[in-house]
UniProtKB/TrEMBL annotation:
Name assigned to this protein: Exodeoxyribonuclease-3
Co-factor: note: Probably binds two magnesium or manganese ions per subunit.
The entry's keywords: Hydrolase, Magnesium, Manganese, Metal-binding
Gene Ontology molecular functions: DNA binding; double-stranded DNA 3'-5' DNA exonuclease activity; endonuclease activity; metal ion binding
Record-annotated site: Interaction with DNA substrate: H253
Residues with site note (Important for catalytic activity): D223
Cofactor dependency: Mg(2+); Mn(2+)
Organism in which the protein naturally occurs: Ruegeria halocynthiae
Length: 262
């Protein structure tokens, strides 16, 4: 059963409901994973999504920050969540499709501005979150699974606009890249986006601070689609919908897509 999946840090699902609807109408992924919903679950505007055929939703929410949701045209079973690093944040949810594929939707902490856990508690929380993800995947090896989300790390040199200039900037520091690699290795996860697009600069996030984000093009690939080895060869047609960064009242992230023939 082929299905197309998209992941998007929406930066407030209520504020940006119009562009979520636009994406669902124009791109029609079977499954849309959202991060940073910034809404309690009962306040997520589900009516418009359901009218477009997205009648299935599982979510974890909080007022004003964090929050993850999976919208689906396909039946979806809620199979739980994990509170990594004991932060009490709504940052993970997992759903299982009828074909047995489990989809993990993650929103890894951004980590603040200073890449030093001694002076920046948020950076320490980010590293601890990744460490607990790693340990979980070691202890309970995932199978027939897809992991998506805003992982808040651009791991490769060509995942950022300037490797040299961002080496000391949170999201591309060596210690973060190392932690992400260990997490990926622990689950045997395959980076589907880079399996499909192995070469070249590729971004999914552009700062609001840039006066003209498109012209400056100082992006980072913070949003990821991974799959376990047993289904990684079924993944294809990866792309970043860059145009969405220029829609009205946009998120600073663009949606990332992949199709799986499972």
């Amino acid at each position: 059963m082929p299905f197309t999946l998209a992941t998007w840090n929406i930066n407030s699902v209520r504020l940006r409901e119009p562009i979520v609807l636009k994406l669902l109408q124009e791109e029609a992924p079977d499954v849309l994973c959202l991060q940073e919903c910034k809404s309690p679950v009962d306040k997520i505007p589900t009516e418009g999504f359901a009218e477009l055929g997205y009648k299935h939703m599982i979510a974890r929410g909080q007022k004003g920050y964090n929050g993850v949701a999976i919208l689906s045209r396909l039946p979806l079973e809620d199979v739980g969540d994990k509170d990594f690093a004991g932060l009490g944040h709504a940052r993970h949810i997992a759903g299982r499709l009828e074909n047995g594929v489990t989809i993990h939707n993650f929103y890894v902490p951004a980590g603040g501005d200073v890449p030093d856990r001694e002076v920046n508690e948020k950076f320490g929380q980010k590293l601890d979150y990744l460490t607990e993800m790693r340990d979980w995947f070691h202890a309970d090896k995932p199978g027939k699974s897809i992991l998506v989300g805003d992982l808040n790390i651009a791991p490769r040199e060509d995942d950022v606009w300037s490797h040299k200039q961002l080496l000391k900037v949170v999201s591309h520091t060596p210690i973060e890249v190392e932690h992400l690699a260990e997490t990926q290795d622990a689950g045997g996860w395959v980076d589907i986006t880079r399996q499909d697009i192995p070469e070249g600069q590729l971004y999914s996030w552009w700062s609001y601070r840039a006066r003209d984000w498109d012209a400056a093009d100082k992006g980072r690939r913070l949003d990821h689609v991974w799959a376990t080895p047993d289904i990684s060869n079924a993944g294809h047609s990866s792309r970043v919908l860059r145009d969405a960064r220029g829609w009205e009242k946009p998120s600073d992230h663009a949606p990332v897509f992949a199709t799986f023939d499972v």
